[in-house]
Structure to design on (701 residues):
């Protein structure tokens, strides 16, 4: 095969042209409501993104099966953020400008959400995200109040850690944080709340991701003889740290977020290593009907238990909340009217509902309060949720919730 | 659609500035720089820090280009005399150092939280006209950079650096000092990268260290390899090809709806990899490569 420059140029031009053409023939169908699923399929968010996107599609199907939101069927357009702000900006522009989506759901890392939120605001459409950075709550990023956070802020997680450490009677906490906004947000939130209670931190360390060993960092912490180590960590690094910690034979325990202290961790290390670890999660309403519905959908779409992906539960709720707000705003409502209803359908003082169909029915007779799969979903004035937190203890390989912490 | 095309054009322009710098270094001089993103990062942070502290954007852009250039100085002093593949490793290390400094020096860079709320270049206008103004600025810088490159290629300096690329020993035997020329090329390329980083920071509005991973460097490498190494037209073509693949593949799903959303992301990366392999097999000199030489 011997291509000339001319042939190559022509075929590339044809490729570019064929790529752009169908987009020009899109017609706007008044009967459908287009939502953009903008998730981290590749990059750092890769382990969660696929499940998140599948749950947006699954929840949209549930809404459509129940007759649509205010009579409008959801149509999902999916894109990958690559967990990179610059790629996410282009993907968001494509969703908004070309696919004409009217809501963007499911951005993950804070960098991505901070880059996408101004674009969504400019187009006057809401962005539902699962990012922890405090900057996403306030102006300039959230000036138009179109950003809704379905994840607890990292700071709130830290406060919950401090409450649990107090309740358990720990005196000498140390912290270890994965070096990113989320990891450090967790431990800094803890340190702030702990010091406010008059406690002191005996040691703290921030570690770099993707190391084969964390022995040096761990030794620095253990030298201070802590009675508990508070982690802002992820599953991969936690597995290595705990293995190395177990080899030292120290007796302290750990408090960690549930995305690190989950069944996979127990499976990787065995019950002896993880005995007594306190795993903290915003309450995913397991046992609630919403969670059961999500769990069933997640099992059939991904093949894992719903508990393994807290963010997928959030994207499930995103679609449901959006649909309920549209239902409450009535047929033909514009985005401003729908946006005004989001808090109304999710916050207390209405009839508690846990699915779109149930909420649709209940809306006929009065206000509702959607209790989600990811949390009870009550938005404050900044569009943030303050879920309750659960302290679960790992005993004999089983993760059991023992009590609930309310901030 | 317009705003999306404008966004693609702006990002292409930012990539083009990066690619022009790398083409000067690798294509014309033979300097294998695997740390290009480091200077991009330096430029982005310089302009972001200055402009969020009240320095007018015009000055912070200038400062970003200068600081980007100065950041290359120590790297050059230490490692410019290394043989080409060793320089590649040193430069890759340099870009990782820059990223780690940005991660760790929280007092300056706000660490992993990143710098948010970086002012736009024309704060007076909003929406579509803001994007068009941004595109105009990027285009002006790209045109200026291309003109400067053409000037360099045709000058005695340009012939000298090409001679260094083709046969460094021969250049030495003529009594010339290749290291000095390489240093100048490194500084010039880094200046372009610094400027490009500043434009990126003002366009995206939020920067954090994890945006400046070596992957960016290698995307630029892909662009100049596909376009044609050592050719300015090749650099432009390469950036366009890269963007067509990165962005054009988004529309593949609209033509081929049987591909599930989730598989699409992986297919996109696969398509780029396949294209890169096909280019190296069938068009090793790139689309616009110089076929007069062997």
């Amino acid at each position: 095969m011997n291509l000339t420059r001319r042939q190559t140029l022509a075929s590339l031009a044809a490729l570019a042209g064929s790529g752009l053409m169908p987009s020009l023939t899109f017609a706007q169908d008044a009967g459908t409501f287009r939502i953009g699923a903008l998730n981290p399929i590749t990059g750092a968010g890769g382990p969660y993104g696929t499940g998140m996107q599948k749950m947006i599609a699954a929840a949209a199907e549930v809404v459509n099966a129940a007759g649509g939101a205010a009579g409008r069927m959801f149509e999902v357009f999916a894109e990958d953020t690559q967990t990179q702000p610059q790629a996410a900006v282009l993907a968001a522009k494509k969703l908004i400008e070309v696919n004409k989506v009217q809501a963007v759901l499911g951005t993950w890392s804070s960098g991505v959400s901070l880059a996408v939120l101004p674009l969504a605001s400019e187009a006057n459409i809401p962005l539902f995200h699962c990012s922890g950075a405090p900057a996403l709550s306030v102006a300039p990023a959230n000036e138009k109040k179109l950003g809704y956070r379905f994840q607890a802020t990292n700071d709130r997680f830290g406060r919950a850690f401090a409450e649990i450490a107090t309740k358990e009677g720990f005196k000498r906490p140390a912290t270890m944080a994965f070096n990113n906004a989320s990891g450090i947000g967790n431990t800094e939130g803890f340190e702030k709340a702990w010091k406010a209670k008059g406690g002191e931190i005996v040691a703290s360390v921030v570690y770099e991701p993707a190391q084969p060993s964390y022995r040096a960092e761990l030794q620095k912490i253990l030298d201070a003889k802590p009675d508990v180590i508070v982690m802002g960590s992820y599953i991969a690094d936690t597995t290595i740290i705990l293995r190395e910690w177990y080899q030292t034979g120290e007796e302290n325990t750990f408090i960690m977020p549930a995305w690190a202290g989950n069944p996979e961790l127990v499976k990787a290390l065995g019950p002896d290593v993880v005995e007594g670890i306190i795993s903290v999660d915003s309450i995913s309403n397991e046992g609630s009907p919403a969670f059961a519905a999500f769990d069933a959908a997640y099992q059939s779409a991904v093949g894992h238990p719903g508990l393994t992906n807290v963010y997928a539960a959030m994207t499930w709720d995103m679609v449901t909340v959006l649909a309920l707000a549209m239902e409450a705003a009535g047929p033909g409502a514009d985005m401003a009217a729908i946006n005004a209803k989001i808090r109304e359908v999710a916050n207390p003082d209405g009839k508690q509902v846990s699915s779109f169909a149930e909420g649709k029915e209940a809306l006929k007779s009065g206000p509702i309060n959607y209790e989600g799969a990811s949390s009870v979903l009550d938005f404050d004035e900044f569009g943030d949720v303050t879920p309750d937190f659960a302290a679960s203890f790992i005993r004999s390989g089983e993760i059991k919730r023992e009590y609930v912490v309310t901030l | 659609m317009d705003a999306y095309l404008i966004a693609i054009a702006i990002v292409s322009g930012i990539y083009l500035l990066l690619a022009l710098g790398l083409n000067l270094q690798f294509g014309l001089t033979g300097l294998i720089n695997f740390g290009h993103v480091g200077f991009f990062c330096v430029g982005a942070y310089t302009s972001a820090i200055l402009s969020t502290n009240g320095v007018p954007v015009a000055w912070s852009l200038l400062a970003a280009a200068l600081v980007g250039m100065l950041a290359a100085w120590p790297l050059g002093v230490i490692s410019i005399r290394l043989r080409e593949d060793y320089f590649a490793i040193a430069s890759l290390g340099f870009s990782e150092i820059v990223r780690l400094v940005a991660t760790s020096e929280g007092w300056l860079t706000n660490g992993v939280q990143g710098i948010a709320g970086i002012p736009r270049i024309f704060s007076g206008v909003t929406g579509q006209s803001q994007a068009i103004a941004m595109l105009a600025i990027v285009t002006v810088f790209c045109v200026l950079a291309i003109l400067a490159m053409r000037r360099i290629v045709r000058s005695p300096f340009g012939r000298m650096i090409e001679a260094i690329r083709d046969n460094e020993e021969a250049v030495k035997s003529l009594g010339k000092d290749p290291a000095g020329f390489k240093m100048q090329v490194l500084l010039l390329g880094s200046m372009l990268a610094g400027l490009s980083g500043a434009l990126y920071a003002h366009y995206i509005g939020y920067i954090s260290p994890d945006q400046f991973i070596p992957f960016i460097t290698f995307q630029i490498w892909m662009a100049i390899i596909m376009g044609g190494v050592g050719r300015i037209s090749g650099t432009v073509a390469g950036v366009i090809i890269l963007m067509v693949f990165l962005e054009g593949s988004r529309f593949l799903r609209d033509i081929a709806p049987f591909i599930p959303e989730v598989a699409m992301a992986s297919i996109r990366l696969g398509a780029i990899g396949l294209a890169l392999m096909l280019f190296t097999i069938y068009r090793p000199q790139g689309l616009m490569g110089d076929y007069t030489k062997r």
Q: What stands out?
A: The CA atoms of residues 205 and 246 of chain B lie 22 Å apart. DSSP finds 13 helices and no strands in chain B.
